[in-house]
Design goal:
Keywords: Pyridoxal phosphate
Radius of gyration: 17 Å
Cofactor: pyridoxal 5'-phosphate
Number of helices: 9
Strand content: 15-25%
Number of strands: 8
CATH architecture: Alpha-Beta Barrel
Protein name: Pyridoxal phosphate homeostasis protein
Shape: globular
GO molecular function, one term: pyridoxal phosphate binding
InterPro entries: Ala_racemase_N, PLP-binding_barrel, PyrdxlP_homeostasis
Helix content: 40-55%
Order of helices and strands: HEHEHEHEHEHEHEHEH
Largest sheet: 8 strands, parallel
Distance between the termini: 35 Å
CATH class: Alpha Beta
C-alpha cells in the first residue's frame, strides 16, 4: 500500500468537504459561490496551512491568539485571510488586530472598545461579527439574540471596525437545523438595518448541511479537512 503524503491527505479531505458543500448547495438551491470555506487549523502546523494555500484555500481560522499570531507571521507571504473564531480576551485584542481580517466572536461592549482602539493603532480596518448564543451555556460565548442590535450599534459606531454580520455555534446535543433557522431569522433582521452585514458564520464539520440550508455564508471546517485534532502544546 502506498503511503499517503500530508499533501495527499489534506487534498482528499478537501475534496470530500467540497463534495459535501456542493451536495448541500444543490439540496437548498444555492450556488457554491455563496459559500466561503474557512479552514480551521488550530493545533495543526503552519506547514498544513501552506498545503491548504497550495490547494486553493484563501481563508484560515484560528481560535487561540498564541497559536494564530505565530502561524500568521510564519505564513505572512501567503495571500490568506485570517479569521479569529475563538473567544477573545481583551488583553489579546491588540495582537489579534495586527493580523486578523475578521473576528467572529465579538460578544461584549468592552471587547468592541478594545478592538477599536487596537485597530486604529494598527492602522487597519477590522471586520467584526457578533457571536450569538443559541443555548444557555455561558462558557461558549455569545450574546442573547435580544442583545444583538444594541451591540451592533456599538460596532458600527466604533472607529476602525466594520460590522460584517453574525456568527453562532450550534448547541451541543441540540437540533442544529432549528438553531440555524433562528440564526437565519436574526440575520435577516440585521440586514434589514445594516445591508452590508451579510455574513452568517455557521456550520462546522458535523453540521455544515444544516448551516448551508439556513443561509450560512461562511463555514468553519477543521476535522473534516485535516483529521482529528492533536492536543495543543504550549
Amino acid at each position: 500500500m502506498t503511503n499517503l503524503t500530508r499533501y495527499d491527505e489534506i487534498a482528499a479531505g478537501l475534496a470530500e468537504v467540497e463534495e459535501r458543500i456542493a451536495d448541500a448547495c444543490r439540496a437548498s438551491g444555492r450556488s457554491r459561490d455563496e459559500i466561503t470555506l474557512i479552514a480551521v487549523t488550530k493545533t495543526y502546523p503552519a506547514s498544513d496551512v501552506r498545503v491548504l494555500a497550495e490547494l486553493g484555500i484563501t481563508d484560515v481560522g484560528e481560535n487561540r491568539d498564541q497559536e494564530a499570531a505565530a502561524k500568521a507571521q510564519e505564513c505572512h507571504d501567503l495571500p490568506l485571510n485570517w479569521h479569529f473564531i475563538g473567544q477573545l480576551q481583551t488583553n489579546k485584542a491588540k495582537s489579534v488586530a495586527s493580523y486578523a481580517d475578521l473576528v467572529h466572536s465579538v460578544d461584549r461592549s468592552r471587547l468592541v472598545t478594545t478592538l477599536s482602539r487596537a485597530a486604529v493603532a494598527a492602522g487597519r480596518e477590522l471586520g467584526c461579527l457578533i457571536q450569538v448564543a443559541l443555548d444557555d451555556d455561558p462558557s461558549r460565548g455569545g450574546v442573547r439574540p435580544a442583545e444583538v442590535f444594541a451591540l451592533a450599534e456599538e460596532v458600527v459606531a466604533a472607529e476602525g471596525l466594520r460590522f460584517g454580520g453574525l456568527m453562532a455555534v450550534a448547541p451541543l446535543g441540540g437540533d442544529a437545523g432549528k438553531s440555524f433557522t433562528k440564526l437565519a431569522e436574526l440575520a435577516q433582521a440585521v440586514r434589514g438595518r445594516w445591508a452590508e452585514a451579510r455574513i452568517v458564520s455557521a456550520g462546522m464539520s458535523g453540521d455544515l448541511n444544516e448551516a448551508v440550508a439556513n443561509g450560512a455564508t461562511h463555514l468553519r471546517i477543521g476535522t473534516a479537512l485535516l483529521g482529528r485534532r492533536r492536543p495543543f502544546v504550549r
